[in-house]
Amino acid sequence: MLFKIKVKVFLIWLCLNAFYLFVLTVDGNKFATGFFMTPATIKTVLINVFLWTFLSIFLYRKVGELIDQKRSFNIMLAFFLVNLLWLPLFIYLNHFFLLLFALSKIPSMDQITGELFYIFIYINVIQYLFLFSLCYGLNYQQHAFQIEMKTAANKLAYSDMTMRTLQSQLSPHFLYNALSSISGLVRRSEKHKTLDLIADLGELLRFSINASQVSLIGLNEEIHFTEKYIDLQKIRFGEKYNVELNKIVEDELLMCPPFILQTLVENAFVHSNHPGQQAQQIQVIIKIVNQQLMFQVTNNQAASPNTNNFQGMGMAIKNLDRRLAILFSENYQIDQQEISGQYQTTVLIPINQDEA
User: Which of 183, 280, 289 is nearest to 238 (CA)?
Assistant: First the structure.
């Protein structure tokens, strides 16, 4: 990889010097400046290309190290030191090799200084300034990009950790309610119902453990889990609740966050009127609305007005809101409203499909 970079830098300097020679040749022919392309000139240019290639790689590495170490003063110091040491050395070597190839003997210092032109010094100073600025800019941009990527990775890791924490909170929350149901059946000595409830609970717990490790699951899996939860509640309450679940979705590949539907249904059980002689109605609708997947749960309004707002919806709905915020940012909606003595909770999320 490093060799390829060196070759690319070499080719860039070769092209720049070739263009420089081309301009000098055209200028010499047009204005009779006395410049002619000679083998000595070509050899000297190739040496210049190697020298500038070496300096480019050296500067890029050193400036990058100093930027990583956040040593701005050292960067400026390196700029001036290399400027003081490199340019005189390069100019001397350039004219030394030019005269060496032209005269076929080692030139004297007087001969070298006699060939110096101010325009040549200016050009090399400008080249150095451009090279240093380019190395600094590329390194700074790369450093900023690495920091941005690291920050994004940290945010993603934090979001994933938060998501797993929030989803793991659902298991003990759900388990507590299920154990309460078992406790009630045991007190009533309903052995067969208790055994059925424990069997269903085992299946639900296996699902909840697996689902708490992922961000999205199949919609059908979530519906099946919710139906099992409803069956569990029916064992506990009998016919005191009538749950109607309507899935108006044909796409079998749709994905959704785990526990999204079960949370809404559980909230409806908890915050409905306490069941009396008449069965309490809970209606569940799942369908596509305006290119979004909608979950809507409607239940009889609770008697206490304090349970009808978002603050009274319990930790489960608040937990769901935080999970959706992590997954979809602002591209989701949770809406609660009262309609003719009923309480309706609607959740809209973007459509996600299983790519498998």
Answer: 280
Q: What is the phi/psi pair of residue 300, to 5°?
A: -60, 140
CA gyration radius for the chain? 38
Judged against a pLDDT cut of 90, whether residue 303 lies above it is answered with: no
pLDDT value of position 351:
92
Q: List, for residues 242-260, the tens digit of each pLDDT value.
A: 899 999 988 888 999 988 9
Task: For residues 116-140, give the mean pLDDT.
Answer: 75
Listed residues 127, 157, 187: the one ending a domain: 157
How far, in Å, are 104, 171, 229 from residue 164 at the CA level? 77, 11, 21
Nearest to 197 by CA among 213, 273, 188: 188
Query: In total, how many domains does the chain have?
Result: 2
The span from the CA of 164 to the CA of 175, in Å, is 17
Q: Which residue has the tokens 């997947």?
A: 293
Q: Name the pairing type of β-strands 241-248 and 280-289.
A: parallel
Same domain, 329 and 198: yes
**Are both 173 and 153 inside the same structural domain?**
no
Q: For residue 41, count CB atoms less than 10 angstroms from its CB and return exposed for 0-12, middle for 13-18, buried for 19 or more.
A: middle
pTM for this entry: 0.53
**Could you tell me the CATH number of the domain that includes residue 344?**
3.30.565.10
Q: How far apart are CA 171 and CA 186, in angstroms?
A: 22
Q: Do 258 and 214 form a contact (C-beta atoms < 8 A)?
A: yes
| Residue 282 burial (CB count, 10 A) | 22
